[in-house]
Each structure stands twice: as C-alpha cells, then as structure tokens.
Amino acid sequence: xxxxxxxxxxxxxxxxxxxxxxxxxxxxxxxxxxxxxxxxxxxxxxxxxxxxxxxxxxxxxxxxxxxxxxxxxxxxxxxxxxxxxxxxxxxxxxxxxxxxxxxxxxxxxxxxxxxxxxxxxxxxxxxxxxxxxxxxxxxxxxxxxxxxxxxxxxxxxxxxxxxxxxxxxxxxxxxxxxxxxxxxxxxxxxxxxxxxxxxxxxxxxxxxxxxxxxxxxxxxxxxxxx
Length: 226
Hints:
By secondary structure, the chain is an all-alpha fold. It has helices at residues 10-31, 35-52, 56-75, 79-102, 117-140, 146-164, 169-189, 196-223; strands spanning 104-106, 109-110.
C-alpha cells in the first residue's frame, strides 16, 4: 500500500507532527484519563491536514471526529456543540464528501470552486436564521455558556456550507469557529483543568485551518492557471 503522507510537503508533515505532539503532551499533563478526548483530537487534527490538501479522506475523518466530539460535548453539557456536530456537521460532512468525490481536479485533489458574493450573502442570511433558532433551542436545554455556544453554531454552519461548496473560505470560517471553541473550552477548563487539553486541541486546529486557507488559495491559483 502507498504511504498516504508521501505527497505531503515537509511543512505539512511538520505542522501535523507538532500539532499532534502538543495534543498528546497536553493530554498527559492535564488529563491522562479521557482517552476519547485524545482520540477525537488526533482524528480531528489529522482530518484537517488532509482537508488542507483538498483530499476527500479529510471529510471521512471529519465525520468520525464529529461523532466523537458530539459524545464529548454531551458529557460536558455543551448541548449546542453536540447538536451542531451530530445534527449538522456530520451530515454536512457526508454531503461534502460526496461533493468532493464528484468534483475532482486530479486523483488526490478536489476542484476548488469560486462562489459569488450573492451566494455568500445567502449563506450569511441562512446562518443568521439558523443561529437565532438555535439560540432558543440551546436556551431551552440549559446549555452551558449559552452565548459562545450560539456563536459556535453560527461559525460552524457557515463553515460546513462553504466546505460543501468547495470554497477556500471554508478554512477561514473554521478558523473563526476554532477561536470561539477556544473561548468555550477555556470556560470549561476553569471548572476542570483536564479541559485545557481540549483548548490546546482547538489551538492546533486553528493553526491547521489557517494553513488550509492559505493552501486552498494556492490550489485555486494553480487550478485557474494563475
């Protein structure tokens, strides 16, 4: 079997290695017990490096991450995160996987799509409607840290929509979501130090999503002939 990392650059392998190393170190220092958190973090950061390359494998791993993260969120009473990832991110990742497979640029790279401003406006309008609706749903279920949880829904929906549409902006939207999640899990860490490992996880995600945005812009220029 071929080595799946063979076509990755040294920078990409270094980014993945450092991210994984920090996640494992944070787990050993602050957690040592929640192996589900560790597994979700490692699957998630691995999915991002594949997504940054425009590979459908990244979507497969994102589906797995959504399931694991939804379970973790349930036990932390972050019902917004649970509903978002199990009810929205996971199904949209499946749809995105189909979209990426059906729109290849090459064997190992999806075709980048350039969406118009009108569609971005539509996506933002849909995001606003869903966010307002989720605010009351999350409030009804007594979701912990309601306001940042609601912002997480907004950034997550916008990101998954752009992922489905194969726009480079999806990585930027996920980076915004990472910032919200860093705040959200930092609040949880104030009550339980083990969640610092989750904060480190999303800090690693942020670095990978920023790289993903840069690389997708590079892919877009290459595919469009400069």
